[in-house]
Amino acid sequence: MIELQGLTKTYAGKHVVDDVSLTLETGEFGVLIGPSGCGKSTTLKMINRLIPLSGGRIILNGDDVNTLPTEQLRRRIGYAIQSTGLFPHWSVAQNIATVPQLLKWPKSRIDDRVDELMAMFHLDPSEFRHKYPHQLSGGQAQRVGVARALAADPEVLLMDEPFGAVDPITREVLQAEMKRVHQQTGKTIVFVTHDMDEALQLATRIALLNGGRLVQYDRPIEMMVTPADDFVREFIGQADLGLKLLSRRWVHQYQRPPSLAHHATLPGLDHCWQLDDAGRPVALEGARLDDGGVTPVKSEWTATPDMSLKEALSRMVWYRVMVLPVIDEAGKLIGEIGMQGVMGIQAEQRVHAS
Amino acid sequence: MASTRSRQWVGNRVLMTLLVAAVASVGLLPFASLSPNRLASGQSVMLWEASASWQLAAFALIGLALLLAALARPLSVRTALWLSLIATLPLLALDFQALGGYAHRALVDASPAARVSQGATFWILLFVCVLIAIDALQRLRLGMAGRALYGMAALAVIAACFCGDLLAPLSIMREFANQRDNFVDQLIRHLLLVGGALVPALLVGLPLGLMANRRARLRNGLFSVLNVFQTLPSIAVFGLLIAPLSALGRAVPWLGDLGVSGIGVAPAIIALVLYSLLPIVRNTYSGLAGVSSGALEAARGMGMTPRQILWQVEIPLALPVILSGLRIVTVQAIGLVVVAALIGAGGFGAFIFQGLGQYAIDLVLLGAIPTIVLAVIADFALQILVSLSRPAGTR
């Protein structure tokens, strides 16, 4: 758990960070966001004291960070930055082992840990262990940077715009990986970005800063639904607010049981699924805009429970189907998601209505 | 038109130019000279007069091989480069062979005072060999190991020529024989002077470079002071140091006993240290400044102590640049020590100034050639060290 209490940073009389207070519970993914110069990076760097505090306190799991010896504090906190900061003269394995080495772990424990982390980030140890940073792609280098930050199993992971310098496709892959790693490790993460989509994708809590002040600290959905003021509204962006909301809602929250027989009660949505022996959907009868006939199910327009509603909607629009089959890992039909689901009408409500 | 045609014929223009220069010098300039004594000027001897007939045939054969290597056809580019590289070694040996052989024959029935010296064509052939080899090594993109191997082969060829008494009758070797004990003394002295300057220059320069990196405000002042030292002519510095140092030596007797006086070793070393400081400080500074700020931020953020950052991150990454500074300074010091002989510091400069005083050119060469050889060896050795110090990841 991290508590910022009245955190203040002053440069030459100017408040760069002004009386910021917030609490991030253990296991949360906190994102500091705001326009350039809002003090988000400064706030982050005060947590591991790369920048000294001008006022206020930071409590890390009960310890005031100002009372801990600097190096000892930093070894308890993982740190990953945009430029990766990998040591060019050390191999990937040596880089990842940096903090365990500083903590004087025995060699066998370090080796095991390096292998474990490389596996977590899908870097084949036999291929990457002995490579040097200049032999890595941008995405690989960033993975090694994050693996290095996690090496000594720190209490908190600080990330300063880690994916700001990679191409959009790699960034999406890295964001998905980061989300998975967060779920796998349950780490408390403080993440700085200026990209609202990235924040909505990753955060469990978002702190929006402007001019050094904390404007709103909330869950992503609340920030979208109940913005504190016009600045928040503007920063989130109004044009595709609905789509942003959908990107934070998941198919499993809104899916309903599959329709296996025709319902005359649902005008325009009269449809049913044909299954094979293994329970996998093979065809859809009705519910297509083009024709009311039988359409073979394609994997391109199936949904999974952990898919966002935004993606589900996108598939519906592109493949011109009013309803997607929701399948499990084995491909079995476990539900369906239709327009009502996307509109936020949950299964129970529909059952009532019918 | 003419140039396009010659481009079609000539594959390697550098080699062709060097060959033309070599042939012109063989035709126009003396290969050796024969003089009645060590001070008188001699009579010119051309290559074809100096060489035995088998040597002439060998020269012609190697010349033809090199010509073949310079042409665009029929050899492939790489084969031609290898041919020129290999042909250079016997040419080198032959250059020495012809000179030594001539000296033996010419002095058989001459007076004991008569001297044989090498002439312009001997040197030109020697340099043509060196240039052909350097050019071919570069174009073949041989690695450090390949270059070192070839360099050692060339050195072995030259050493073999010096081993027997082949070159003994040459004037410069007779000077060497006269000075044999002295030569070793001056070699040691030369090396001690270089080492005696480099060690304190490193001890002072490395911390100064680190300081320049850490304290931006000190940097400009420091570099302008060091720049002033660098621009002073060396002879002027030696002159300027005479008065204060002799005063110091007299005023503080124990310093005087240690050898501090207006002339000799003390002013030589002081001047050499002053000249060495700027390259060492500047390279240390820029080596440290070149370490990526991301790596430094990450190092601090992960909890490395300032000392760990310096020794594990900054110094390993700055080392190639720092060693390049050492390389500049070493080669520079080997040359500057020659001038220090003027104020009685000794070293190979002693032969040069003695030779100049006596108009004995071969004695001058006895000082100059070993100085050049020392500088080339030091340069090469440090170059290898620089490339070894390059971090494995960036090599």
From TrEMBL, chain A:
Alphabetically sorted, this entry's keywords are: ATP-binding, CBS domain, Nucleotide-binding, Transport
Give GO terms for biological process. quaternary ammonium group transport
Q: Where does the secretion signal sit in this chain? A: none
Q: Which Gene3D superfamilies match?
A: CBS-domain (3.10.580.10), P-loop containing nucleotide triphosphate hydrolases (3.40.50.300)
Q: Where is the CBS domain?
A: 294-354
Q: Where is the ABC transporter domain?
A: 2-236
> Which SMART domains does the record match to this protein?
AAA
| Pfam families on file | ABC_tran
Record GO terms (molecular function): ATP binding; ATP hydrolysis activity
Q: Which family does it belong to?
A: Belongs to the ABC transporter superfamily.
This chain belongs to which protein, by name? ABC transporter
Species of origin reads Salinicola socius
Taxonomy, top ranks, is: Bacteria, Pseudomonadati, Pseudomonadota, Gammaproteobacteria, Oceanospirillales
From TrEMBL, chain B:
Q: Which GO terms describe its cellular component?
A: plasma membrane
Q: Where in the cell is it found?
A: Cell membrane
Alphabetized UniProt keyword annotations: Membrane, Transmembrane, Transmembrane helix, Transport
What is this entry's stated membrane topology?
Multi-pass membrane protein
Q: Which domain of life is it from?
A: Bacteria
One Pfam assignment: BPD_transp_1
Q: Can the keyword Zinc-finger be found in this entry's annotation? A: no
| InterPro entries referenced in this protein's UniProt entry, alphabetically | ABC_transp_perm/SBD (IPR051204), MetI-like (IPR000515), MetI-like_sf (IPR035906)
Transmembrane segment boundaries: 12-32, 52-72, 79-100, 120-137, 149-168, 188-210, 222-246, 258-278, 309-328, 334-356, 363-386
Q: Where is the ABC transmembrane type-1 domain?
A: 187-382
Q: Name one process (GO BP) from the record.
A: glycine betaine transport
Give the family this protein belongs to, as stated in its UniProt record: Belongs to the binding-protein-dependent transport system permease family.
Protein name according to UniProt: ABC transporter permease
